[in-house]
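Continuing the series of single-chain predictions for the mutant panel. This is the parent chain; the variants come on the following pages.
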Amino acid sequence: MNVRTEPQIIHHDGKPMYAVIPYDEYTALLRKAEESFEDRRPDEQVTLPHEVVKRSTLGDLSLVRAWREYLGLSQAEVARRMGISQPSYAKMEAKETRNRTATLKKIAAALGVQWEQVEG
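Parent structure:
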């Protein structure tokens, strides 16, 4: 079947939640992602534990918060490691917050993970 099909966007509470795309496009995107991953050296590959992804996706949490909870740390502990207050840290892990790269690097160092693992 060579008929071009436009992606279908499924909304929930007025926000886009899912995109339904033709299977051929899906497999092409998957293949491209796999090739990109395979082209990286092992020390450059960024992976996430299933539990972190699950917490982030199903729990509708930021990756920063999902990692913190996965590691069993409190906001106060991460803030202490970063040398900031707990309320300041709480703002950084809020779902709607878009942290700068420099901030993500500080958070990642406090969590003991790669900064790319908290980028989201």
